[in-house]
Amino acid sequence: MPLIQGRQYxxxxxxxxxxxxxxxxxxxxxxxxxxxxxxxxxxxxxGNDAESWGYxxxxxxxxxxxxxxxxxxxxxxxxxxVHLNMWTGTLEFYLNRQRLGVxxxxxxxxILFPMICSTMGNSxxxxxxxxxxxxxxxxxxxxxISSMPSLSDIPGLKAIWGRTFWWQQATEIKKKSxxxxxxxxxxxxxxxxxxEEEQEKILRTRxxxxxxxxxxxxxxLYY
Length: 223
Hints:
five-stranded antiparallel β-sheet; B30.2/SPRY_sf; alpha+beta; about 30% strand; Jelly Rolls
């Protein structure tokens, strides 16, 4: 079944066997991926054309035949998560429930399917998580709030996230190319974040959270 436009999807795949060889790639593809193009070659199927996007066990992301450094390598026992937002067209990956950041911007109105490929014989994987949500104001607000640590202690917010929206609060793994900022830079960022504009943003977000909580309470009372 193709993924539905306007929804967000999250699925996780656990690697059950040792990984070695040419490639093992997790990702997505359109209905136009040529599944027989490399049937006689040890080449990763995903990412070698314009119709598929993938995250390799070597730590690279692949699309259109090009590879770019992206995240850590993964192997036996690793859990690779895939988060596809069909509303915004963003594709990002998780490794052991740690966020790796947005990997691709996918053109909208594509007919997409979850995919995985391996050039290694006797590969074994297991689908351990599948979730999806319709695009909504509530979900967008929760995603915005998750990037504001100062709001994480709002009463009732942790219950709303619960086990379902853990991926919004997952810690993002720093890329290898990212260098830590100097003490002066960190101090400057703290001053900026405590400005009036940030405080107004926090107050507006708190109002939205209270509104969401009240709607949930009314729903329980009347339904």
